[in-house]
Specification:
Layout (H helix, E strand, L loop, with lengths): L1 E3 L16 H10 L6 H15 L7 E3 L17
Antiparallel strand pairs: 1-2
Amino acid sequence: MVAYATTADEVAQNGKGRNSPFTAALLKRLQEPGLEIGVMFRRVASDVNTQTGGRQRAEAYISLLSKYYLSLSKKRGQ
């Protein structure tokens, strides 16, 4: 699994806030429970494309044979 903030030979935008459009989209999608990793990165790419008005397209290369899920667990009290 390799993810890029933008396509080859392009420059990723910094964004206006604390995070770039790619990082903001990734952090948002990591919070969604039960997303298969391929689905998650397609949603990240869609978010980046929308947030940048089509000027940036994230890419992911996935060479997995099965479905994989990321699990974020929060410490108690957070």
